[in-house]
Amino acid sequence: MPATVPAPDEQPAPLPTRGSVTELGHLVPVAPSRGRWRPLGLDEVVITGGFWAALQRLNATEMIEHCEAWVERMGWSGNFDAAAEGRLPAARRGREFSDSEVYKLLEAMSWEVARTADAALESRLRALTARVAAAQEPDGYISTMFGRPGQAPRYSDLQWGHELYCMGHLIQAGVARGRTAGSDDLLVRVAVAAADHICATFGNGGNLGICGHPEVEVALAELARFTGDHRYLDQARLFIERRGHGTLGDIELGAAYFQDDVPVRDATTLSGHAVRALYLAAGAADVAVEDGDDDLLATVASQVLTTLARRTYVTGGMGAHHEGESFGLDWELPPDRAYSETCAGVGSIMVNQRLLLATGDPRHADAVERTLYNVIATSPAADGHSFYYTNTLQQRVPGRTPDPDHASPRASSSLRAPWFEVSCCPTNVTRTVASLAAYVASVDDEGVQLHQYAPTTIRAVISGGRAVRLRVATEYPMDGRIVVTVEEGPVEAWALTLRIPAWAEGATITAGGATRPAGPGYATVERAFTPGEVVVLNLPVAARWTWPDPRVDAVRGQVAVERGPVVLALESVDLGADVGSALVRTNEPPVERDGQVLVPIATTFPEEGHWPFGPAPRVPTLSDEHLVPLVAYHDWAQRGPSTMRVWIPVAGR
Amino acid sequence: MPATVPAPDEQPAPLPTRGSVTELGHLVPVAPSRGRWRPLGLDEVVITGGFWAALQRLNATEMIEHCEAWVERMGWSGNFDAAAEGRLPAARRGREFSDSEVYKLLEAMSWEVARTADAALESRLRALTARVAAAQEPDGYISTMFGRPGQAPRYSDLQWGHELYCMGHLIQAGVARGRTAGSDDLLVRVAVAAADHICATFGNGGNLGICGHPEVEVALAELARFTGDHRYLDQARLFIERRGHGTLGDIELGAAYFQDDVPVRDATTLSGHAVRALYLAAGAADVAVEDGDDDLLATVASQVLTTLARRTYVTGGMGAHHEGESFGLDWELPPDRAYSETCAGVGSIMVNQRLLLATGDPRHADAVERTLYNVIATSPAADGHSFYYTNTLQQRVPGRTPDPDHASPRASSSLRAPWFEVSCCPTNVTRTVASLAAYVASVDDEGVQLHQYAPTTIRAVISGGRAVRLRVATEYPMDGRIVVTVEEGPVEAWALTLRIPAWAEGATITAGGATRPAGPGYATVERAFTPGEVVVLNLPVAARWTWPDPRVDAVRGQVAVERGPVVLALESVDLGADVGSALVRTNEPPVERDGQVLVPIATTFPEEGHWPFGPAPRVPTLSDEHLVPLVAYHDWAQRGPSTMRVWIPVAGR
């Protein structure tokens, strides 16, 4: 199947197009046929060491198998067997969306097989695929929850049924498998059959409904890219255009919950359920890019940039309300009630990566990096056997260790849990980590762009079929020095472009013997590189104070500490006291010593009163100040129950 | 029926007991047989003018009829007709707890008939009672939701069914009617039959369940007080003792939601769903008082005092989470996400009034006053035709005016709504306002205690059958001067006790020609008053800055303004700009001018950025400072959509 989408009947408005289509570059979750940059795939970029390689190793050795074991144990994979064997609905287990966990796991396994060629994993992937395939009905419909005798009819509950959502994840898995194993794989056939069923059912003249949880849109768009079949894109567009007109009917949380209150084209920011909003925006970005719909692309980009400017936590986390797992209003970012769902982090990476490739705006790459380090990397425990669902920025009371043998409610614990009754996050982490290489670099006619920094080897083909091979050596984010060696390249000049994160004031680039400052954004070195030539990017990763916009009421008078892209946190196990008692002094920069970041903290001994409001500001008694080490936020709560805060009250404020 | 409860088999531990039982004093919602003070009833205290008389007038002329019209229009009173006529379940409308709205309305009507002797209202009350009575089953069970052919069986859903909760409100209505109209009234007979059914069903050896929503406990305890039948008290105790052992089973919100995680005796603070927690605490206080269970009383008092010290908004509002309508953790009091349900205000008044009467601790009377002025009085609009369900302390975006012809979701609007799909609050306000006189004063052997200040006439009988008549003249809370005239009293010395609110530093009492300072708490004037003698209490009500405990992270660097017991707020209609831009200067006290409180405010023009967190504190550009009038919080949003904040950021902090 061709890798680009044929033009629709109407000629789309011109977008920047890539000059060359190569044999490489299909091993990506997102493969736009237009846009500023083409992402490099898992066959082009290999992460060879450092922070992300370690997480990929954990994924390979622990996380994926952990998820396999739990979907089995919960009966969610067994639901497919029960369907094939006519034991539904009696034998069914799990919530209405449990099928999707199996599909996200299949996607993770597909990327992982491509990354590691693990034969045992390939075998398990095939076996699980066969069980899913056996449950598919002759017309392509697949759900273990609906449509069989004794079950509610198909599409009888579009508000909450999640049928299209689940099939969307099946289609994403099919695309991943198709790109990595070929289009005649069983998983691809199952996905395509499901997509054909969806188009036949929900196309023009058919069911005019939409799914309560967006996801099928982004999946259908990607399937269109993979298959070259524009029908899937048209169907994605239909779902997006139908949304926002009260199509789904009313619910107690309001139609804004599932983005059915305002059409995508009319919204000015993301709102409602965060994961739903982000998946929908990703799908809308895909449709806009493929159809050359510049208005829609600009609208989605503006929504996302506004959301980054006003509705995003310093961690990159999104979703300020537990109620409805939803975005708050502008500037409403309570650290202690941050929902910041791990899946919203995945959704943010999805949409920001799409907008980055379409527009070249570095803010999207910054958002991807921030979210990877501070949301995605925070979710799994060091052993890969438990996960955060929500990612609070302030823990007021030490949590209880979740039972390792039972699924937890989704947001009940301050400690990572092995599984959840609604367990969307662990499988979402595994599929993201397995495909991380696809976020590292891209190409255009002029050269190669590096967006995320890790020890990697990169090969790419730029315009004119000219091969480029790079090696990136770095200890980033611990160290800010990033050494890019051009191992192979054309003799004539070409462009190596490097992202300077917005926080990296004072960055420098050394190339051709000269060092120059490089402001935030993208900096390009255009040279006729000789093989072995080195470009050095120096990012100032030293720990720094980070202050909030004064409109973020919830953290007024508080400060956070970041080091490079990593958000730090104060944890009670380091303070030796409840972090609720801490005041920090900020006259000098945070101290770095022996690989630790330390800040001067005094603890307070507030007087107990009968009523917490009074006629004078209460000035607490302070302990002697001492230097306290901070922990990377993504590493918090790895040492047992604790209290924690990212935002620390500043003494004298 | 006697007004005191016979002693149970076990002799209870001694509590302070009253010396005299009078013929008066039955017209109260709470009539403990033991405790520090006996409350004066609607036959003893008449509110003759001022703030509360105006609200009672609004209740009489608008609010009660508004509620009557809406329970009719929503079909909730019609459900009883449908039950009697065999048209259930097909004809049923409303949620599972809709019966309770009719019962709370009956309670409001009962108090109001006692207060005003309104014959037309009496006639409507009898008619509505008859419709309810017709739906009662022969064994006393009554519910329009459960138990009939085609409905779920009785008590098949104790978690969410609200059957005992509804019957609890029926019993409270029956007690109100019994105390005000006599025990052979139909409403009393219906209530007693329901209570007998409950005791027969849930007594020892019967169904061991409890209701997901506490309320029947407090109702049964009061029915025991009214009838003198200890069975009802025993049943209340059973329900309280059974709770906290996972009796109800698990729910997604966790057993803490309905206080089934920890036994009442073991809890150290109120937690979970705020209304549930407060109603339960009120019932536990009643049982403790009647049975002389000092341990239980001390436990409940400690829970409530801790809740006041750490989990209560400056308005007296309780409930910091929209999710689960629940208490937050200690110090977790976000103003913009305050749930502060109006019904939780009612529940707080219920439990604090009980603890005040039992213990004489003035903090409970302070809490009642604060909650009356800033939660109960906030709920109804000036025309009495719309109500707040939740009471936010910060409104970030102007709301939309709710449709006057449709019930609103419970917490969706920043403007008062005419009715709600879950409409517990309007009827709760009406029953509270109709019975307000019962919160004003109490007696003991030595004399009379005044807890709440309003223009009133008071008659009481103290020990030895000695009659006392008082007249209170005041413009409180606008003015702090409260003039108590002793119109009649015994010739020998007796004690007039006056509450000094905790905020009233500098209060004075003038009696017998001498003025003395009176610190917060209770101050007693013990004299042989001559008829016509005057005692003057001067409370310093001048507007003052109010600062939060530094542990309340959400309002760090912000200040509120209070005037006497009234919390003030900054509203955009007065600022002429979004209140999100306001900074206040606090060097001098707030200005009082022409009956307004004004504070010096500058507005900011923050720069728009791409990312709200950065390397330096952002110092916004300020407008020229000007004096801006504040509005009483209970009057906010009476002038159309607006933004509002109780806590205002302080310049330079």
Please explain how this structure is put together.
- The structure is a homodimer of 653-residue chains.
- Chain A contains 14 helices and 25 strands.
- Chain A is of the alpha+beta class and 653 residues long.
- Chain A has three domains: 402 residues, Glycosyltransferase (Alpha/alpha barrel), CATH 1.50.10; 98 residues, Immunoglobulin-like; 106 residues, no CATH class.
- In chain A, the strands form four sheets. Chain A has a seven-stranded antiparallel sheet.
- In chain A, a hairpin with a 6-residue loop joins β7 and β8.
- Chain A is globular, with a radius of gyration of 25 Å.
- The N terminus of chain A is likely disordered.
- Chains A and B meet through α10, β14 and β20 of A and α10, β14 and β20 of B.
Q: State the share of residues found in helices of chain A, binned by percent.
A: 25-40%
Oligomerization status of the protein chains:
homodimer
Q: Mean pLDDT across all residues of chain A, rounded?
A: 94
The DSSP helix count of chain A reads 14
Distance between the termini of chain A: 62 Å
Largest sheet of chain A: 7 strands, antiparallel
- The tally of beta strands of chain A, per DSSP, is 25
Which stretches of chain A of 5+ consecutive residues score pLDDT under 50?
1-24
Anisotropy-based shape of chain A: globular
Computed structural class of chain A: alpha+beta
**Greatest interface:** A-B, 64 and 65 residues
Report the sheet-strand fraction of chain A: 15-25%
- Return the CATH class of the largest domain in chain A: Mainly Alpha
CATH topology of the largest domain in chain A: Glycosyltransferase
